[in-house]
Amino acid sequence: MPAPRIKICGVNSAQALDAVIAARAEYCGFVFFERSPRHLTLAEAQGLGARAAGHVTRVGLFVDADDATIADAVAASALDVIQLHGEESPERVAQVKAQTGLPVWKAVPIASAADVERAARYAGAADLVLFDAKTPKGTLPGGMGLSFDWSLLAGWKNRAPWGLAGGLSPANVAEAVRLTGAPLVDTSSGVESAPGVKDAEKIAAFCAAARGT
After folding, report:
1. Residues in domain N-(5'phosphoribosyl) anthranilate isomerase (PRAI) (predicted)?
2. Which domain covers residue 115, as residue numbers?
């Protein structure tokens, strides 16, 4: 089984970005959601986007954002991929893809087999379905270190390209890859020393563990 591609999300400093590049992760995630401790301003995103160019694929994370918010962030940080992490419908996913001309990933919160079935709605619209843990009502939609029962994904059967998020850390990512065969793994809080503060050693350890090295 080939090693999974790796995304480190919530990158919000030059030091964190340099650690992601040094660890050879394929993707870095920039968060454009003001309630998140990892939120970037457009000015911050511009600097990080330029620093990442040519080294790592830039993914912008949005939560039920309007067209202008997405367009401004794409322009500022030269995003390569859009990740929608809210209540966006398959129609909205397709619309964002058409408007930006970029690949669009859709994060889907999972707590039950029915949630996995609902994710199938996005199979035609999204370029990748990212399975994440469902968070408690009224809290952030991700980045909280929560995981879900990975065996629920057994029924997915590659209906569309997919990735695994939710509570992944250097300690459990190898097991997650072994059990699910995830072609992409995504972490944020699992490689932090405090909310929004990335840890270079944890980033390196996560990437090594995910690759089985």
Report:
1. 6-207
2. 5-211
CATH number at residue 145: 3.20.20.70
Q: CA 171 to CA 48: how far, in whole Å? A: 28
For residue 67, count CB atoms less than 10 angstroms from its CB and return exposed for 0-12, middle for 13-18, buried for 19 or more: exposed
Q: What is the Cα–Cα distance from 201 to 193, expressed in whole angstroms?
A: 10
Phi, psi of 150 (to 5 degrees): -65, -20
Cα 12 from Cα 17, distance rounded (Å): 8
Exposed, middle or buried by CB within 10 Å (0-12, 13-18, 19+), for 45?
A: buried
pLDDT over 70 at 135, yes or no: no
Predicted pLDDT of residue 140:
57
Measured CA to CA, the distance from residue 84 to residue 94 in angstroms comes to 11
Q: What is the mean pLDDT of residues 20-28?
A: 98
Instruction: Indicate the pTM of the whole model.
Output: 0.93
